[in-house]
Predict the structure.
Amino acid sequence: MVDFLVIIFIVTLIYLSKVEMVKSYFSLMAIQGVLLFGLAYLELKEVKLVQLLFILVETLVFKAIFVPLFLSRITKSKAQRNHSGPVKGYYSVMISSIIIVFSFLISYFIHDDLKSDADLLIKYFTAAIASIMVGLFIAITNRDLVTHLISYLVIENGIFLLSLALGSEMPMFVNAAILLDIFTSVLIMGMFFNKLKDYFENADTSHLSQLKD
Amino acid sequence: MTQIFKIALLISFGIFILPKKWKYAFGLVLHLMVILGSASWALDVFTNGTVTIDLGVTTWSGPIVLIIDPLSAFFNLIINLICFCGIIYAGGYLKPYMPKKRSVSIALHLFSFLWLHGAMILVTSLRDGMAFLLAWELMSLFSFILVIFEAQRESTLKTGINYLLQMHLSFALIMLGFLMASAQTGELSFEGVAKYFEQGNNTSLFLLFFLGFGIKAGFIPLHSWLPRAHPAAPSHVSGVMSGVMIKMGIYGIIRVITMLHHDLMTIGIIVLVVGSVSGLLGVIMAIMQHDLKKLLAYHSIENIGIIGIGLGIGLIGKASGDEQMMLLGFAGALLHNLNHALFKSLLFFTAGNIYYAVHTINMDHLGGLVKNMRFTSYAFLIGALAISGIPPFNGFISEFLIYNGIVNHLSTAVFSTFLLVLVALLSLVLIGGLCVFCFTKAFGMSFLGSRRMEYPAPVQEVPSIMLIPAGLLIAVILSIGFLPSFYGGVVINILQNFNAPVSANISDTIIHTLGNIGHVNLIFVSVLIVLFGIRAWQQSKVKQASGPTWGCGYTAGDFKHQYTPTSYADSLRQLADPIIEYNRHYTSFDEKEIFPPAKKFHTDSKDLIEEKTILSWVHLIVKTLPKAGVAQSGLINHYLIYPMLFLIIISLLTILNYL
Amino acid sequence: MLSLILILIACIYFPGVIVKTKAIFSGRKGPGILQPWFDIFRLLRKGNVYSTSSSFIFQISATIYLATVFVAALFVPFEENNAILSFSGDFVFFAYLLGLGRFLIILSALDVSSGFEGMGANREAFYSMLMEPAFFILLGSLAMFTGYTSFHDIFINLHYNNYFSAMIGLIAGYVLANITLVETSRLPIDDPLTHLELTMVHEVMVLDHSGYDLGIIKIANNLKFVLFSTLSANCLIPQTLDLTIRIIVFLVLQVLFSAGIGWLESFRARNKMALNAQYILSINAISIILIFVVIILKNKI
């Protein structure tokens, strides 16, 4: 089951890289949140109630429901299209598949080196590396503010997977810290977004440099 | 029989003194003599095993001895078949040139054609390094003369010289390879090379040979002569050059591969990667072309790439101990040599037919030829289907062998070979798809639809002498398609001579599978016949009608509204933009232009690989060398500085020597 | 033999199911399930109208297209029930044989010297070129997983009822379903009912075909659709079930798939032309993920 969820997670990364409507980002993020919940739930050997609650809040409530809803609320006023990126759709699909192949290779070689407990490592590590790099790639190729936020979320998901890969026990504090970061960034971005839209036609990050207090 | 071969080459000089109208007939007889002489050796090999023939000519390095093993015999038969078709085709193709050309140039052309034929036969049979290089040089020289047949055009002459230079680079590299081996082993021959390989470190010497033979074969990035020389040469020459002469490079590479002992994995990876790149870039470049013969020339590169993939797969199989993959890869590569020789010469001959009939092979100007040139279009269609690797034709059989090797290996693959095999699989599939894309374009644009420009004269089918070779080639193509197990058996027999004999079990499985393909092809044809029968029966009952093409409500269209080759290629152009250099030249419409005058639109594509690997260096050299011109000032006192400098340096060196 | 019979049965009702679903979603009663076939039979009784600029290619293409699809159908097994033809590497033959039919249909579109049909021909060639790697990589990864190289052996060995094969079967089924949509020019790529020639792919290529030939092409299209969806079903239906149950599951799956397409065609607009290439490339990417997953699993188990 775990393998299956990981594969679906990787498949969502491909779809993320070819998204055209901002709307579909939100549904993909929601799917990723649910997947992460499933993974964490299945992977934790002895679940304490506190831990379970934390994971539930982090993945299901925060990642799968709150952030997508919040973002779709702030972008609702205007049907936003995301094609400000300089990279054509098919190239970004190609590049993201190259990224995924690359992360398979990396994790395979690391697996070869380590040997110990590598089973767990290889699948999460692949997904984590792929997720982080695809997130970066999305951030690099798009200038849209919402898309940037999405890319941070993708990277955060990657880090979440990495924490799964690193050991059986979740380093809760690390996660909590990242979560807080994301939380603040979402809020700040939301503010920025509304400000930008007040002044400019769209939320292009290149406008940020023109803002003054 | 050997005597006939020798006599033919000796009396060939007589062609210069014969009257013009007998020259062709004499040339044909000479070719038949050469074929009779040499093909008998090859047939002998298939019954009795390796044959050794003393030509009775002694040079400073000893008597010239021909050693013909099954591999040589295989190439020998291909050469004879294609050259035979070529000389027959020349009978029709040269006719319009007969009154225009001077007698001596016709004679020289036919003479060179014969000697090219003979030299290629010798290349495949000689083992001695010196003699081999001599034959190789003869082959290059005579093909050069053939390329510049229409030397009155400056571009042709330029292309020819470019070709000659590159061939000599290839010659030098091969010679270097032989010398390197003989420095170690003392033998300037293939035996010496084999001994060298037994000693260890095979990669560097193999690379030397691979570069040398690769220029002839046209692997990217060594290909730049190919798309120039083929269109410049007359069609029977380009058919023979593309069909068999570039295969001499492949022959050399295979010959060297049979001797390898170490470093098989490294060499396999190199060959595989170069093959994949050649295949993919070759076909993508082909799609961008407007000139039909140039398109076919790029397809030669692509097919050489497929052969390279086959050889790479074979080598990797051998290195990783997978006998089946080794056998399938090598067998696919060898059979593809034959297949490519058949369909590529067929395609070049039919392209020649188009040129003969309408005096242009620019696809932007063609169209609708199917109505006037029925047989040519059948031949081209079969060639196009065969080269796209579509069953029931021959191209599929060899590609299938390589595919089968790849797919069979997958189940036992470890991670490292898996990656290589995946690369090979991906490139083969993409090449297949792109090939369909390209040949639907080539056939559809030149033969189907309506004409895109006015033809100078009413179009007529070419004389039947130019269709005979096409018929012969089609017959062989179909025989491979429907009797693949026979040809597969022949090829596998040849492979038994490679230095790792294969177990009978595996080769039986392969031949059995090929037999299955033959049966399925027959089933397919019978289904086809039944369906056509039903159709004919139904059609006989109802009324048939004809009318104009449905213009989708737009009635003012004419033939200029057809899809053009450029627009057909455009979707791929957008995808492959980073790896091709594609230029549009046009003046755009002005905003206020209400009654615009006639405008021109022109596109062309450059070979980015050639541009980056060769021309950029050339430009650099051309730019920097004039600065050295400072030294040549024209004043005698300046020139006297140089000997003085020389003297000073020499004396300084002597002093240094003391210290 | 069973597989061929099942394919033919599914072929009879699936176009009707699509039409019916669409009718229901748009609030109409809709024609009977067999209506598409009645239309085809009506076409088969008619004569052809040939364009004046067309040649022999135009006349032979439809029949060859049907023949290729029919012979390809002989390769498709139904799980452990033998396909009629089977040999090592037969899926390569399968794909290239379908390539022959495509080649001729493309040529027949170029044969009538119409700009619109040229456009369709170009798109068909382009999309199928992009689609082919996905099919080969998918079958390659199944071959790698099972250790066999013919359709028949692959599908028998795909379900030895462990959890990995179920997972791989599911993903392969998903990819094959997508390949079906592209190969048969269904919705995200192409809308078979659109009436704008500029945006059609497959339908615009056969604009000038009429009467008997058009009927033949429609039969071949239906057959091709069921062919691919049968391959997809082969990946999905577990072999542990009883044969009769499996046959029922197969037929129900076909109905569901057709209904799904009807639903898709009722509620979704087709892709913009420019997005098709990346849609197909993402299917390729998924099959590449699959083959990497398989190699990692192979070295683990």
Observations:
- Chain A touches chain B at residues 90, 105, 108 (CB under 8 Å).
- The longest helix of chain A spans residues 49-76.
